[in-house]
Structures are given as C-alpha cells and as structure tokens.
Amino acid sequence: MELTYREMLAADYDESHALWLKTEGMVLSEADARKEIEAYLARNPGCSFVCEDSAGQVAGTILGGHDGRRGFIYHVAVSPDQRGKGIGGQLVKLSLDKLREAGIQKCHLFVLENNEIGNRFWARSGWMKRSGIAIFSADT
Ligand SMILES: CC(C)(COP(=O)(O)OP(=O)(O)OC[C@H]1O[C@@H](n2cnc3c(N)ncnc32)[C@H](O)[C@@H]1OP(=O)(O)O)[C@@H](O)C(=O)NCCC(=O)NCCS
Q: What are the transmembrane regions (predicted)?
C-alpha cells in the first residue's frame, strides 16, 4: 500500500486526534485540544508530519517543534495495522531533518516508563535514555 508523508495541517486535527485517542501509551491533556494544536502547528511550521495511506487516511503522526534552543517531539503514533513498516522511523527522520535545518542540534522527548513499545522503539532508533533527571511541571 502506497504511503505519503506530508506536513501536518490544522485540517488533520480530527483524524490525528482520533489516532492519538486509540494509541496506547499516549497521554492527552487540554494541550491537545484543537485550538492548542492549531497554535502549536502555527508556531512550529513544517516540523510536524502525517503519513497517509493510499486511501488518504492518517496512518501516523508526529508533532515536532523547538524553543530556539532544543527540539521537542511529541505524539509519535502509528495506527496498529500499519506498524513495523518504517512509518514511525520516517516520521521521526522528517521532523529531525527540519529541526536540524532550523539550527537545532539536540531534541528531547517524553515517554512513559511503562510504555514498553515506545521505550523499545526509541532505544532501537538510536535515542539515548537519560537517567538522573526528573521532570518538574507547574501551571502558569
Ligand atoms: C512506537 C511506534 C510509533 C513505532 O512505529 P512503527 O512505524 O511500527 O516503527 P518503525 O517500523 O518505523 O520501526 C522503527 C525501528 O523501531 C523498531 N521497533 C518499532 N516498534 C518496536 C517494538 N515494539 N519493539 C522493538 N523494536 C521496535 C523497528 O524494528 C525499527 O528498527 P530497525 O529500523 O532497526 O528495523 C508505534 O509502535 C506506536 O505508535 N506505538 C504506540 C505509541 C508510542 O509508543 N509512541 C512512542 C512513544 S511517545
């Protein structure tokens, strides 16, 4: 089946959100509402991608962006029936290429400790698991 990779657009929200909802290991919050994702895409143009199958259905997503210093990747998800075909890896490559073009030299991501599939994927893809770092969060 032919796969197409392209920049994620605001119009992809409904299908992407539906995929995230059914993706194990993915935590959604108010930051994933339509308005917030549209703002994210507008702030980080060209760094987020979807993979479409030949029927035009979203088979995979990645949100990529940076703060001018480091890159961050979120919501790497591939539809269960499309996994193991290189889609996740290609989405990560596309996003990292764009971040590199923007002068960003390192990218971070969050993955739940108990997300075995996700942890194996990142380790297999050459990402370094950091230890000795805690994440602190606060409402603004
Ligand atoms: C993780 C996920 C995105 C992988 O997508 P995918 O399209 O199946 O991955 P790919 O086919 O591109 O695989 C890329 C590499 O990771 C490896 N890999 C993928 N899934 C793996 C798994 N479950 N266990 C071990 N290795 C895995 C592949 O073997 C491949 O390695 P290779 O290039 O050396 O052969 C997909 O399983 C998914 O959506 N999981 C749920 C959401 C999630 O955990 N996201 C990531 C955490 S934020």
A: none
User: Does ligand 1 lie within 6 Å of residue 71's CB atom?
Assistant: no
Q: Is residue 138 domain-resident?
A: no
> Does residue 59 line the site of ligand 1, with CB under 6 A?
no
Domain count within the chain: 1
Query: At residue 1, does pLDDT exceed 80?
Result: no
Q: CATH number for the domain including 92?
A: 3.40.630.30
Ligand 1, atom 1, lies closest to the CA of 118
CA dihedral 140, 49, 46, 105 (to 10 degrees): 70
Residue 90 in any domain: the answer is yes
Torsion of CA 91, 13, 19, 109, to 10 degrees: 50
For residue 78, what are the domain limits?
Answer: 4-124
- Site to probe by mutation for ligand 1, drawn from 24, 63, 121 as the one with most ligand atoms within 8 Å of Cβ, is 121
109 CA: nearest ligand 1 atom: 48
Residue 90 has pLDDT above 80, yes or no: yes
pLDDT digits (tens, 9 = 90+) for 8-58: 999 999 999 999 999 999 999 999 999 999 999 999 999 999 999 999 999
User: How many other CB atoms are found less than 10 A from the CB of residue 48?
Assistant: 26
